[in-house]
Amino acid sequence: MPAYSTNMRLKLPILALIVQVLIIVLYGLFVVYDDGKSDHKDNHTSESHDSQPLALYPMFQDVHVMIFIGFGFLMTFLKRYGFSSVGINLLLAALGLQWGLLMQNFWHMSDGIIKVSINRMINADFSTATVLISFGAVLGKTSPVQLLIMTLLEITIFSLNEHVVVEKLEASDVGASMTIHAFGAYFGLSVARMLYRPGLRNGHDNDGSVYHSDLFAMIGTVFLWMFWPSFNSAIAETKQEQLMAVTNTYFSLAACALAAYATSSLVEEKGRLDMVHIQNATLAGGVAVGTCADMSIGPFGAMVIGVIAGIISTVGFKFLTPVFASKLGIQDTCGVHNLHGMPGILGGLAGIVATALGRKHNASPDKQAAALACSLGFALVGGAITGLVMKLPFWGQPPDQNCFDDSVYWEVPEEDEENGESLTHADHSKSKTEA
Amino acid sequence: MPAYSTNMRLKLPILALIVQVLIIVLYGLFVVYDDGKSDHKDNHTSESHDSQPLALYPMFQDVHVMIFIGFGFLMTFLKRYGFSSVGINLLLAALGLQWGLLMQNFWHMSDGIIKVSINRMINADFSTATVLISFGAVLGKTSPVQLLIMTLLEITIFSLNEHVVVEKLEASDVGASMTIHAFGAYFGLSVARMLYRPGLRNGHDNDGSVYHSDLFAMIGTVFLWMFWPSFNSAIAETKQEQLMAVTNTYFSLAACALAAYATSSLVEEKGRLDMVHIQNATLAGGVAVGTCADMSIGPFGAMVIGVIAGIISTVGFKFLTPVFASKLGIQDTCGVHNLHGMPGILGGLAGIVATALGRKHNASPDKQAAALACSLGFALVGGAITGLVMKLPFWGQPPDQNCFDDSVYWEVPEEDEENGESLTHADHSKSKTEA
Amino acid sequence: MPAYSTNMRLKLPILALIVQVLIIVLYGLFVVYDDGKSDHKDNHTSESHDSQPLALYPMFQDVHVMIFIGFGFLMTFLKRYGFSSVGINLLLAALGLQWGLLMQNFWHMSDGIIKVSINRMINADFSTATVLISFGAVLGKTSPVQLLIMTLLEITIFSLNEHVVVEKLEASDVGASMTIHAFGAYFGLSVARMLYRPGLRNGHDNDGSVYHSDLFAMIGTVFLWMFWPSFNSAIAETKQEQLMAVTNTYFSLAACALAAYATSSLVEEKGRLDMVHIQNATLAGGVAVGTCADMSIGPFGAMVIGVIAGIISTVGFKFLTPVFASKLGIQDTCGVHNLHGMPGILGGLAGIVATALGRKHNASPDKQAAALACSLGFALVGGAITGLVMKLPFWGQPPDQNCFDDSVYWEVPEEDEENGESLTHADHSKSKTEA
After folding, report:
1. How would DSSP label each residue in A156-180?
2. How far is C426 from chain B (nearest CA, A)?
3. Contact C101, C40 (CB under 8 A)
4. Looking at the DSSP assignment, which residues form a beta bridge with residue A31?
5. B426: which chain A residues are within 8 Å (Cβ-Cβ)?
6. A60-64, B15-19, B203-207: least confidently modelled range
7. How many other C-beta atoms lie within 10 A of the C-beta of residue B4?
């Protein structure tokens, strides 16, 4: 492993510092404070937000918690990869929000400047969500350097797709089922396909959880579950639509949770619940209700979407993920296809149905369908290209035996590193002798 | 255990799905979005909330965190029951909030419909709190199916009591010391009495904590402690009363924390602190100041209440809980009598005193006393009936030896399941041979 | 150890109760609710806050989370000191906020009373932050009684310094780089110098982390990181300055995170990341941008400050902390010099530069420089005096071998106490025989 690590020795710091310096220069040239005078090209900022520049701040913080605690801890379920899960999550999101703010608003500059409002900070956080979703697909099998490259490329492509969907196709996607969840998932699956590891066909000792790592993951799950109403409503255009989005998401998630528990128990041989399902499928209702969160589908409609999402997500974890790995060469560590992929498509389809039923003013099923297809297309092609770039040997992809192991990239407390689990002091001295 | 599990195989999913479908039908018939036009029968919604439909949203999210993170993680102190603590907590609360919104507003329908406002979502979250408190009394000794039954029955009875207390008796209970905390505690104790297990008289190996499970529990404690001012003030009628409720709760909790630490050290033989006290008794001040949170008792009065609550709660854990188990046949796993029961009654009494002293306009000690008696009566009788229903063999109550053990209801990571604690890889192979 | 514990038996409860009773009496005499009628001596309360008394409540809660979850869990990295880290943190902060509110507003009483507004509750929380920072310097080496004494003295001295800096020197320090971070750090280092333990020169077995304790610490890190914009903006005078402070802190932290990761990898021999750096140095950008958070330094300027802070903080952990311990006799357990000390001074210097460049109306570099010198002076002298008081044998300072060990002050679950780490059941019986 020394050779491998030495290899990484300078690449991570040099890449991170160069990118950070570049971003600082770009911010010096283009980014200024929001002075409250709205540039009218930003169609998300309603008038009320201008007079109260911090009205959205509590929702921004909820989204912030989802990005950094939610996604970060959700991935700590792996027994030996918790440092990377929450640590690299922080690294990628910290880079992503800086890059995302540039990429997203590059299209909306007035007089060559970008004004930073809370609304745009929320959108910047959103852009990082795509990367964190894709990170879940390749978790444990990629180096930090590869992931920094993925962050830059994915957010660039995401911003392009978002621009097409929102500005050109004029589709509605307030909770971003299509542009974030489906996009992030299929982008990540496409990358995972490119980085397929035949050597991991039969699994890996560290590709699993222990008791307390599953509890750490539940911190992520529960914060995501609670704050999802903020995610889906933060950028709604009017307060009434915002309330509607909160309400729809609240009920969709509650119904989804029951469906996920029921399905998890149903598909397990002995009727037991599976932590993987509970950690993930309980959230599928938040994903699936995203596109039509601000449409008047009724609490009833939101709950139906939630139940369907909870069922297909759980069934996906049980039956699809193994097939993806064995037949399609897609090793999806966190099962993002089940949490973000299928529920994201379900959200897109629900949006088509809801607009066809006239549940949203100024929205049409044609545009919604085009937006869904567009997002999937950008994701699959963009992910494939990004995967090829990430495959270049230069970025230091870890060998199979070092996958799912923090000690490749982190100083791990000694006693843990040696044994994979915490030891008694008595055992400790013994194992030192043996080693 | 296979026989037992098979028994459960279909009951949990079938019950959960039937209830969810029933709820969806009821929501389709009765529940609509809030359109901002207040129906005047809802006496909690002040005018200012109507013009700003999301004004209460940050407080709603604080309460949400208390319900799902606070209660969920507080119960993870058990060494082998963390999955159930945080997982079943999520299941029950997700069901409870859907059911609670129906039950609570069944009394307030105008034109046969229920409008979902943030205020009502907060109240729906509140209704689940009663169930989660009672859950604490029977933690580790009940099946998920039994708990779903308890959720439906308890919230129904809670809503009836709340209707009587608020609408008929016109009592004041802004932070719900009586209607949530005392009610939930004595309901749960009544259930626990019905489900008394003589076989656990001498304790159970898994009815205890390990080092890191106590730290997980502190996540719950601290979030409850921090956000309790939101719990006690969320549904206050005016902004000035809301500020008063925040202030009273803030100081009551701070004073309570010091009293709990002092008492914990005092009652332990060697002067050490006990995690059980710190995890729970530090919160008693929030419970006890609930009823008079919006009364002008002064920061001084709030602190006095907090100190008394911290002392009686700690003393209860040390001296009462063992007596309850040995003499009264009440095995109160989390000690909810000490955290919610006695402090809830203290809160009710404080409300009687405060109204007698004229600290709240339009409130009388007679009505407050009636409300306290009414809540205790509904709790004890309702809990006893619910306990009898839960005792029906059909619901699959776990045998004594399977109590406090996640592996009955959950797929537990293999190495953990075998040994009750995490293992070194070396030990792991050895224990496999032995097994 | 019995002798030692018996020694403590009555001191902690008696001291805590006496102080709490004293505080209650003082609150009874001086503290009343905020009635919305601003006393004009409080220069932080702008008019808009008076008409909306709870406008700052969401930011207050963010700060609350930083104090109780952020600081508390950040210090759980020690393998055997998690109970004390999060538990004593709660005790000190609960006392500190009550004491802080008195001390800070003693200077601003009108008609002999103190009105409790949300703004003042935020400031009371702030005052506890100084104590929690200093706690980090002496973590594991002081008794709860010593720390209660430190809390009372440090907050008194802090309030005096704050009064001089804000009212007399009229310096600007919205995010309190100087008055909280630099003050708290150098106060704590000064105390640590007084309490120097030659017996710990060669380290201590328990002065380190294990895998899951590092993950618990990340809960603290990430919540601090996310909510720091609230800390730096909460008491800004106008909404526009508040937005500016949020924006500056958001970008400073993002840039700082990348710099900390890059530097951590750069300074480690094999290019690996060090959890100590990630847990701490990623936050240095929040500290360093504090003083000029409400100055128009531009996102560009904020990022430059963040990058410098991330680099010096990481370098400090790697190279300075060992030197402090070996050459200066300052054993800084959490490395607060690197997270709060140097970045705090950097923040003060940045404020001098920014005001010299005219980035804030009504602020001058002279006053800023005087404020920085004043804060450092009060911290070093106040810390030295406090350290001498804490050294009195009466307070029960733990002997060297009992440092970094919860079991001195806490009932620790039996199996853990014996072995320092969780055991298998099989091992458990064995080790009992051996012991």
Report:
1. HHHHHHHHIIIIIS----TT-IIII
2. 8
3. no
4. A114
5. 419, 431
6. B203-207
7. 17
State how far the Cα of B248 lies from the Cα of B241, in Å rounded to an integer: 10
Nearest to B1 by CA among B348, B399, B334: B399
Kindly tell me the burial class for residue C396, based on how many C-beta atoms sit within 10 Å of its own C-beta (0-12, 13-18, 19 or more). buried
Burial class (CB in 10 A: 0-12, 13-18, 19+), B51: exposed
Among all residues of chain B, which has the CA nearest to that of A310? B17
E-strand stretches of C165-208: none
Complex confidence, ipTM: 0.93
Inter-chain contact C275–A2, Cβ cutoff 8 Å? no
The Cα B275–Cα B286 span in angstroms is: 18
How far is C-alpha A359 from the chain's CA centre?
28
Question: pLDDT (tens digit, 9 = 90+) per residue, C254-285?
Answer: 999 999 999 999 999 889 999 999 999 999 99
A270/chain B closest Cα distance in angstroms: 6
Neighbour-count burial of A431, counting CB atoms closer than 10 A to its CB (0-12 exposed, 13-18 middle, 19+ buried): middle
Residue A272 Ramachandran class (φ > 0 left, ψ -120 to 50 alpha, else beta): beta
Asked if A333 contacts A139 with a C-beta cutoff of 8 angstroms, the reply is: yes
For residue A330, with 0-12 CB atoms within 10 Å meaning exposed, 13-18 middle and 19 or more buried, which class applies? buried
Nearest-by-Cβ selection for C257 from A6, A91, A144:
A91
* CB pair distance less than 8 Å for A409 and C278: no
Nearest CA in chain A to C59: A58
CA distance B145 to B151: 10
Q: What are phi and psi of A410, to 5 degrees?
A: -130, 150
pLDDT of residue B180 exceeding 60, the answer is yes
Size of interface A-C (CB pairs under 8 A): 188
3-state helix, strand, coil in chain A (%, to 5): 75, 5, 25
CA distance A306 to chain C (A): 29
Which among C121, C243, C129 is positioned nearest to C176, based on CA atoms? C129
> Which residues from chain B sit within 8 angstroms of residue A227, using beta carbons?
61
Chain C residues whose CB is inside 8 A of the B251 CB are 27, 98
**Predicted confidence band of residue A94 (pLDDT cuts 50, 70, 90):** very high
Would you call C259 and A17 a contact, using CB atoms and an 8 Å cutoff?
yes
Q: Is the pLDDT of residue B425 over 50?
A: no
Q: Tokens for C342, please give them.
A: 């140097």
Nearest to C173 by CA among C224, C236, C254, C128: C236
Tens of pLDDT along C82-118? 999 999 999 999 999 999 999 999 988 888 999 999 9
* Number of cross-chain residue pairs from B and C with Cβ atoms under 8 Å apart: 188
